[in-house]
Amino acid sequence: MTLIAVGYSRAQVADTLSISEHTLRVYIESARYKLGALNTTHAVARALSRGMIVV
Asked: Taking a C-beta distance cutoff of 8 angstroms, is the pair 3, 53 a contact?
């Protein structure tokens, strides 16, 4: 989430973490569900507001 929050694309995040883009999508979907977010941007906003990530 932190890398997405600072503007990395999904491909860049996956490459940085040495995982596939598919795995990254699964992780993002899981985080969205846990945060009760409608989309990735909403999930990042919720994580930021809750202090879960810092940029």
From this structure: no
Architecture of domain 1-50: Orthogonal Bundle (1.10)
- How far apart CA 13 and CA 16 sit, in angstroms, is 5
pTM beyond 0.90: no
Amino acid residing at 11: A
- Give me the tens of pLDDT residue by residue for the chain, a chain 55 residues long: 999 999 999 999 999 999 999 999 999 999 999 999 999 999 999 999 999 999 9
Q: For residue 21, what are its two tokens?
A: 């883009």
* Domain chopping of the chain, boundaries: 1-50
H-type alpha helices, 1-55: 2-5, 10-17, 21-35, 40-49
